[in-house]
Amino acid sequence: MIYSIFGIVGLIMIVIFTFRSDVGKQVQTKEQKRDSIITEYKKELYESLIVLNDDKQARLDKKSKLLKKFSDELSLNIFFDKNEIQDIILELAKDS
Q1: Using DSSP, how many helices (H) and how many strands (E) does the chain show?
Q2: What are 14-67's pLDDT values in tens digits?
């Protein structure tokens, strides 16, 4: 008897938490997620390089390291194929 009460209470809690969750409301399309990722990379690149405006060599080294890091991360991402990754890295390279 007590196990059935716990079972019913547990089931009710699962149903309540399922309906209250916002997971379904925040789904992004592939293009939105892709644009979001690229925007974040541009922002990180800009913020990292802005402090190195005076030192061209340090800026170039930092930019190379960041572009390599971005390339590695993008290669693991399901939203991008090799050609897209190359285009994105080229775009990031000439933006800054």
Answers
A1: 4, 0
A2: 888 777 766 555 677 878 888 888 899 999 999 988 988 888 898 999 999 999
> Counting Cβ atoms within 10 Å, is residue 59 exposed (0-12), middle (13-18) or buried (19+)?
middle
Burial of 88 (0-12, 13-18, 19+ CB in 10 A): buried
Report the alpha-carbon distance of residue 16 to residue 13 in Å, rounded.
5
State the DSSP code for 23: G
Question: Among 41, 33, 34, 39, which residue's Cα sits nearest to residue 67?
Answer: 41
The pair of three-digit structure tokens given for residue 89, joined into one six-digit string: 């890295």
What's at 69, amino acid-wise?
K
